[in-house]
């Protein structure tokens, strides 16, 4: 399921991804107006994910005092931490080739935008299989907003007990509150 979703996303022409990302940004504008976060975690675009950097720059510029943060992998099987990001901050590459802030105090963002490869309406997602976001969401208190393209929506991601659902899902088609039920996850195998 993960590989299929990645193939679909990579098959989108760059221009199409850019248009879909603009639509996604308009929906995020409305959601952020409701949530009113002072700090926002987001991810540097990776493997044809929505590139939200321009949207984040605009969000930062819209009100003084706002803080954007990027995740930093400190240890392979540990929760990530978040460091403040502004355009121009030094950004070395991590072991996956993803830029991250080189220094700074860690913070917990009020809202965290989490990339979606595949996702279901209950808020469960498939990332890249490393478990970084699941471990992180298990130990921080934040509003998790899954962000991705509609082509990644599936009926069921077959979540395991350790999987953490998103609170909201945002795509180019709109924003929905995740529909969690007591039976949303399956026991670990």
UniProtKB/TrEMBL annotation:
One of its GO terms (biological process) is tetrahydrofolate interconversion. Pfam families: 5-FTHF_cyc-lig. One of its GO terms (molecular function) is 5-formyltetrahydrofolate cyclo-ligase activity. Keywords: ATP-binding, Ligase, Magnesium, Metal-binding, Nucleotide-binding. It catalyses: (6S)-5-formyl-5,6,7,8-tetrahydrofolate + ATP = (6R)-5,10-methenyltetrahydrofolate + ADP + phosphate. The keyword Nucleotide-binding applies. It comes from the Bacteria. Its EC number is 6.3.3.2. InterPro entries: FTHF_cligase, FTHF_cligase-like_sf, NagB/RpiA_transferase-like. Gene3D superfamilies: NagB/RpiA/CoA transferase-like. Substrate binds at residue 49. Its cofactor is Mg(2+). Belongs to the 5-formyltetrahydrofolate cyclo-ligase family. This is 5-formyltetrahydrofolate cyclo-ligase.
